[in-house]
Structures are given as structure tokens and as C-alpha cells.
Amino acid sequence: MKVLFRGIETSVARAFQRGERDAHGQRPLVQTGAGLGPCRHCLEILTEDQEKVILAFMPFATPQPYAEIGPIFLHPGECSRYEAPEPPGWFEHLEPAVLRGYDERDWIRYDTGAVVEGCDVSATAHSILEDPHVAYVHVRSRFGCLQCRVDRG
Ligand SMILES: [Zn+2]
Q1: What DSSP state is assigned to residue 137?
Q2: Residues in a beta bridge with 79
Q3: What is the 110 CA–ligand 1 centroid distance (Å)?
Q4: pTM
Q5: CA of 78 to the centre of ligand 1 (A)
Q6: Which of 10, 85, 122, 149 is surrounded by the fewest CB atoms within 10 Å?
Q7: How far is the centre of ligand 1, averaged over its atoms, from the C-alpha of 22 (Å)?
Q8: Tens-binned pLDDT, residue by residue, of the chain (153 aa)
Q9: Other CB atoms within 10 A of residue 86 CB
Q10: pLDDT value at residue 109
């Protein structure tokens, strides 16, 4: 089975990069500091000293009981969406990575939850997506922050 690791949609990233309101109705912050983490559009790491857009993001089309909202970073300028059959190399350093499958309603499939070493993210995502009732997978950090989405490709 082919899969695609994807950053958030380009139109969504651009809207926040332009300063449109986030999932809490607030303007995204633009600042340096706030730690190290990936831009959720291109999946490149933003270091502590790089300027970044910081906002509350809901990675689902509509609000519903399982629609978690969490903090994400984006580059302040335009970057290219990550879309590839394997995750970026730095995923090997996710210690650990948390994977969850979601169904077509965007509800968590509790039988799919996995906490794995970063080097096992790809194999685990493939395994979860073998289940035809799983629509897609989220990869999250140990803090629960969304890293990327994995779809059948
Ligand atoms: Zn970026």
C-alpha cells in the first residue's frame, strides 16, 4: 500500500501566514523563541532562534467531540507543502511518536492508538491504514502536538 505523509493544506497555511484567525478566534503570533518544532506545512524544523507563526490549529473540517485543537508552528513566509511516501528524516528523533487512526467522521479509532519510536512511524502508519475503517492517521509528538497527517496514497 502506498501512503502519503502530508503537511497541512497550502490554502490553510497561507491564510494563517496572512494573519487570519486561528481555531480560538485569535490572530496568530509571529515571534522567535517558543521552542523548536516543525512548520506543519513544509515539515522543516524551525529552530529556537527562527521567527515563526504560532497558532491554535484544529486539523479537522468541522468541530465535533473528537476535534482536538493544539498549537502549531508555521514559517512566516510561503513554503512548499510536504507530501511524500515517507516522513522527513527528523521523524527518527520523535521520542516517542504517537499515532492515531481516525474514521470518516473524524472520530478517533481507539483500537489504532500507538506510541512508537520515531524510526517506526512509517511502518506503524502503514499498519494502521490496512484497516479499511481508518480514513487517515495523525502523527503527534509526545506533547500531543500534531506533526503531520498520513493518507493512503
Ligand atoms: Zn514551512
Answers
A1: E
A2: none
A3: 31
A4: 0.94
A5: 7
A6: 85
A7: 17
A8: 999 999 999 999 999 999 999 999 999 999 998 888 999 999 999 999 999 999 999 999 999 999 999 999 999 999 999 999 999 999 998 889 999 999 999 999 999 999 999 999 999 999 999 999 999 999 999 888 999 999 999
A9: 12
A10: 96
Centre a 10 Å sphere on the Cβ of residue 98 and count the other Cβ atoms it contains.
20
Contact 138, 149 (CB under 8 A): yes
What is the CA(111)–ligand 1 centre distance, in A? 32
CA–centroid distance, 133 to ligand 1, in Å, is 31
Distance 41 CA to ligand 1 centre (A): 5
Q: Give the distance from CA 95 to its chain's centroid.
A: 16
**Torsion sign across C-alpha atoms 64, 67, 68, 74:** negative
Cell numbers standing for residue 135: 480514513
Q: Print burial letters for 18-42: b (CB count within 10 Å at least 16), e (below 16).
A: eeeebbeeeebeeeeeeeebbbbbb
Contact present, 57 and 70 (Cβ < 8 Å)? yes
Using the mean position of ligand 1's atoms as its centre, give its distance from the Cα of residue 64 in Å.
28
